[in-house]
Design brief:
Order of helices and strands of chain B: HHEHEHEHEHEEHHHHHEEEHEEHEE
CATH topology of the largest domain in chain A: Rossmann fold
Number of helices of chain B: 13
CATH class of the largest domain in chain A: Alpha Beta
Structural class of chain A: alpha/beta
EC number (chain B): 6.2.1.64
Strand order of the largest sheet of chain B: 3-2-1-4-5-6-7-8
Helix content of chain B: 25-40%
Distance between the termini of chain A: 64 Å
CATH architecture of the largest domain in chain B: 3-Layer(aba) Sandwich
CATH class of the largest domain in chain B: Alpha Beta
Largest sheet of chain B: 8 strands, mixed
GO biological process, one term (chain B): protein neddylation
Protein name (chain B): NEDD8-activating enzyme E1 catalytic subunit
Function (chain B): Catalytic subunit of the dimeric E1 enzyme, which activates NEDD8.
Number of domains of chain A: 4
Number of strands of chain A: 10
Structural class of chain B: alpha/beta
Number of helices of chain A: 23
Number of strands of chain B: 13
Strand order of the largest sheet of chain A: 3-2-1-4-5-6-9-10
Catalytic activity (chain B): ATP + [NEDD8 protein] + [E1 NEDD8-activating enzyme]-L-cysteine = AMP + diphosphate + [E1 NEDD8-activating enzyme]-S-[NEDD8 protein]-yl-L-cysteine
Oligomer: heterodimer
Shape of chain B: globular
CATH superfamily of the largest domain in chain A: NAD(P)-binding Rossmann-like Domain
Strand content of chain B: 15-25%
Helix content of chain A: 40-55%
CATH architecture of the largest domain in chain A: 3-Layer(aba) Sandwich
């Protein structure tokens, strides 16, 4: 057997291409599919104010190879720009800021296309937004002209384009992601350790048969065979015994599980050369983690219960598959099997057989779901690969912005302010860090002030009082107002670079539909080096 | 109020207008006992700061420090630029591949930012002595090696002389992996140090040799087999070079054949390279976050315009961007039994039936030790020395002996040294896990 296999020649090597080598360190995070999504994205930055945080964001998107980037910026370069923005140089002074930024950013990656506005052909933001080029995401930085903001908001609504606001002043910053509707993610990249789903409490016939075959004569197995039983098989064997002694039920309470664990541990042979058995150690260690009655994960529950705001949304691949998975769950009281088996001590052949049993069941579940999808109007053309991915990740599917737009932001802000005030009062007892909402509140009144204008702490507090009446009395809000006033609209390069990094991460997640983006506002406090995500 | 306070610019008022508003004027959180606004800008222009690493974090750190008003920066990096650096190390271009990272990075930033002087050192940190490190006000590290971090940490802790204020050199350290990272501030002997925090960066568990040799189950097992066993047996090239595609290809082909033999799927060229080189995924965005978090602390340390990490409480910021954004900023406590900055011996759980060889092998895997070439002494007696060869030969017979036969007892203190950290003697107190 070995000879036959060894004489086969492995496929001829096609070493990685130059592009794969250049992007190697990021392809390990989001794979070729994520890279393709990134390369077809077209991003617009509407830049104003001190103008650095948005540019630092773009830097982190140009480097990994975003498709196209555009900058709209009315300003000309001043000397103050050279003290905060790395992508401008002496020779830029007095010239168009958008042009000079674009030129120096594009040096970072020849594969990225870039454009800058206003230029000879497109002289205003309005004409840019009415041009045929459709943007994947739009970023803008505060302080922004109110008329620009309303142009962007209506564009975002019309084209269903995610709109991201960023504000950075001195040590403080926040950014806010406005998604055009519910945003589901399947490829959430959960931690490996969280994904183990072995179904030991509800094994299917093939798995039961496999375990029985291996353990039929367990006491007479050689030390080698006994010491290489996969822990899945060990647990299934002793579960059968337990059920026989307990009227057919599995260990369910903590006490029963620890009792079961010690039964498993005691079954290890200790009279062998090693004085114990690693596979039995693994089995005992897995008892509490794997003997759990599965419940519907909260992320998926939200998907199942989601009510569509628009009928068109319902026909997307994601929702058709989600409906089929819901039907599957209602019928079987379990999710489709992901089919992954963690590494465990076992002989190679036995482990591969076990792996195949799980894979076969996973394929069977996915096929049932695919059948349901294809029987639904509009589901005929769904890519089976999309169904497979959903089935593998079903327990970790996540819905962002599920209630987006249902409550007005102004009301929502008051509600969150009240919640944060309550949790701050208990912070000493709960040992939770204090809310960063005061920073967001103090930055809000300066969202439309140009960087040249001075705004006093008192002026800021007046603005806060209009947003959340009473908040202007809060001592932490007063301090935050003074800190914002100290910056006079100026940016610190470090804070701009830090927040530019966070925003770029978020945009990568949104564009690739991988990992989980924030929902929906992130506040950064550069004095205490801390962030908080708030749903506003 | 703060907003009325005067601004104190230094040599270029117009250029640093935003920065000066923050660094030369107090805010509501500024410690007025430490802060002297009118000296800040001028002092910062005179400060000499050291950056270790000119890679993903290092490029960002050099940019950030130059944009924070520092004018005299040194940078150490012994590496040359590789194609796979270009997705994040933004001071390098395709034409720079093969050149010194420290030199290219320094030249780029000097060309871009007027008035900053950056001195590159294309060598190892171990090439310099304490006199060299003493000239800097603080050190910012952007490294991918735990060993280099531990070395500079031990060096800076050793340099502390309680009588001389200037001998305390703050160490600001960043690290990233994928969408995650951390930034921390260490004030040698005052706060918890890198060695105190070592167990937070546990080494990856090694796959047992018998799994590789006879019962592989995962594609990684096949690759490790090719790397550890097949290479040694066949020696297809005189010395394994992880950066040579021909060498990686040889390992890949070997691993693939082995995988086919055992019906294991998933061996790819990329995975082979990842396992053999222990590649950590890295992106520009995360480096941007962590490097800026470090330099934000540098600005605060240099100016006192706001409290920095490490004084008095939180000294560590953990960042994770995989699932939403989560930061945890906390105080990592100094450890009395830290071999570098503490004075107590650390407890070491050992099986008394072990041979000295087994004890020595165990140091590499222990999260709190991570020593690859340890030499061991006990109560003035040398039990085993790795160097020099004559002493090694003389002490080698001890390796076969059991700990108890060497006269070691429960509670006994042993001293361990490792050439990677020449200045440190790791003190351990034996704690037997079984009765003798």
């Amino acid at each position: 057997m070995t000879e036959i296999v060894m004489s086969q020649t492995p496929p001829i090597l096609h070493g990685p291409s130059e592009k794969e080598r250049k992007y190697d360190r990021q392809l390990r995070l989001w794979a070729a599919s994520g890279q393709a999504a990134l390369e077809s994205a077209n991003i617009l930055l509407v830049n104003s104010g001190a103008g650095t945080v948005g540019v630092e964001t773009l830097k982190n998107l140009v480097l990994p190879g975003i498709g196209r980037s555009a900058i709209y910026d009315d300003e000309t370069v001043t000397e103050a720009d050279l003290g905060v923005n790395f992508f401008l140089e002496e020779s830029s002074l007095g010239k168009s800021r958008s042009q000079n930024l674009t030129e120096l950013l594009l040096e970072l990656n020849p594969e990225v296309q870039g454009s800058w506005y206003p230029n000879e052909d497109i002289k205003s933001l309005e004409s840019l937004l009415s041009s045929p080029s459709v943007f994947t995401v739009i970023l803008y930085t505060n302080p922004i002209k109110p008329e620009y903001l309303s142009l962007l908001e209506s564009y975002s609504q019309k084209h269903k384009t995610p709109l991201v606001a960023i504000h950075s002043a001195g040590f403080y910053s926040y950014f806010q992601i406005n998604l055009p509707g519910a945003f589901p993610i399947v490829d959430t990249h959960p931690d490996e350790t969280a994904t183990t789903d072995l179904r030991l409490l509800a094994p299917w016939p093939e798995l039961v048969g496999f375990a029985k075959d291996l353990t039929r004569d367990i006491d007479n197995l050689s030390d080698f065979e006994h010491g290489h039983l996969p822990y899945v098989v060990i647990l299934l064997h002793y579960l059968e015994k337990w059920k026989a002694d307990h009227g057919g039920s599995c260990p369910s309470t903590y006490k029963e599980k620890t009792e079961f664990r010690s039964i498993v541990q005691k079954a290890a042979r200790t009279d062998n050369a090693e004085g114990g058995e690693e596979n039995f150690d693994e089995a005992a260690a897995a008892v509490l983690k794997t003997l759990v009655v599965p419940s519907l994960p909260s992320g998926l529950k939200e998907v199942f219960e989601y009510e569509h705001a628009e009928p068109a949304e319902q026909k997307s691949g994601f929702w058709l598959i989600a409906d089929a998975v819901k039907k599957f769950y209602e019928k079987h009281q379990s999710l489709p099997l992901p089919g992954k088996v963690p590494d465990m001590k076992a002989q190679s052949k036995v482990y591969i057989q076990l792996q195949n049993i799980y894979k076969a069941k996973a394929r069977q579940d996915a096929a049932e779901i695919l059948e349901t999808v294809q029987a639904t109007p509009g589901g005929e053309d769904i890519d089976p690969a999309e169904v497979d991915l959903f089935c593998k990740n079903a327990a970790f599917v996540k819905l962002i912005n599920a209630t987006g737009g249902k409550i007005k932001r102004a009301d929502r802000l008051k509600e969150v302010a009240a919640q944060e005030a309550v949790s701050d009062e208990m912070a000493e007892m709960t040992l939770q860090p204090l809310s960063l909402l005061p920073i967001y509140l103090a930055l809000q009144p300066t969202a439309h002030v140009s960087s040249g204008d001075k705004i006093s702490a008192d002026g800021i507090l007046e603005g806060v009082a209009k947003l959340v009446p009473g908040a202007e009395e809060n001592e932490r809000v007063v301090q935050a107002a003074h800190e914002v006033a100290r910056a006079e609209g100026g940016e610190l390069h470090n804070v701009a670079a830090l927040v530019g990094g966070m925003v770029a991460q978020e945009l990568i997640k949104i564009v690739t539909k991988q990992y989980i983006p924030i929902d929906n506002t992130c506040v950064f406090d550069g004095i205490n080096s801390r962030t908080q995500v708030l749903r506003l | 109020m703060a907003t009325d306070a005067q601004v104190f610019p230094a040599s270029e008022p117009a250029r640093w207008t935003y920065l000066d508003k923050i660094r030369t004027r107090p805010g509501p959180f500024t410690n007025r006992d430490l802060f002297e606004g009118k000296n800040v800008a001028e002092n910062m222009e005179k400060m000499k700061v050291l950056v270790i690493g000119a890679g993903g974090l290092g490029c960002e750190i050099l940019k950030n420090l130059s944009m924070s008003g520092f004018k005299d920066i040194h940078v150490i990096d012994m590496d040359t630029i590789d194609l796979s650096n270009l997705n994040r190390q933004f001071l390098f271009r395709h034409a720079d591949v093969g050149k010194s990272k420290a030199e290219v990075a320094a030249n780029f930033v000097m060309k871009r930012v007027k008035g900053v002087k950056i001195t590159p050192h294309n060598c190892m940190i171990q090439d310099f002595d304490e006199d060299f490190y003493m000239q800097f006000q603080f050190v910012v590290c952007g490294l991918d090696s735990i060993e280099a971090r531990r070395w500079i940490n031990a060096t800076l802790v050793n340099m502390v002389d309680e009588e001389i204020e200037d001998s305390y050199k703050p160490l600001i350290d960043g690290g990233t992996e994928g969408f995650k990272g951390q930034a921390r501030v260490i004030l040698p002997t005052v706060t918890s140090c890198i060695e105190c925090q070592l167990d937070m960066h546990a080494p990856r568990a090694a796959v047992p040799l018998c799994t590789l040799a006879s019962i592989p189950r995962q594609p990684e097992h096949c690759i490790e087999w090719a790397h550890v066993i097949a290479w040694e047996n066949e020696k297809p090239f005189p010395k394994l070079d992880n950066d040579d595609p021909a060498h990686i290809n040889w390992l890949y082909q070997k691993a693939l054949l082995r995988a086919m033999e055992f019906n294991i799927s998933g061996v790819t060229y990329s995975l082979t390279q990842g396992v053999v080189k222990n590649i950590i995924p890295a992106i520009a965005a995360t480096n941007s976050v962590i490097a800026a978090a470090c330099c934000n602390e540098a600005l605060k340390i240099a100016s006192n315009c706001a409290p920095c990490l490490g004084f008095p409480d939180n000294n560590y910021m953990m960042y994770s961007g995989n699932d939403s954004i989560y930061t945890y900023t906390f105080k990592h406590e100094k450890k009395d039994d830290c071999p570098v900055c503490g004075n107590l011996a650390r407890e070491l759980a050992v099986d008394p039936a072990w041979t000295l060889q087994e004890l020595i092998d165990s140091f590499a895997a222990r999260p709190e030790a991570q020593l690859k070439k340890p030499s061991v002494r006990a109560e003035g007696r040398t039990l085993y020395m790795q160097f020099p060869p004559s002493l090694e030969q003389q002490t080698r017979p001890n390796l076969e002996k059991k700990l108890t036969d060497l006269g070691l007892e429960q509670g006994q203190e042993i001293g361990v040294t490792d050439p990677a950290f020449a200045t440190v003697s790791f003190k351990f107190k034996l704690k037997f896990t079984k009765k003798t």
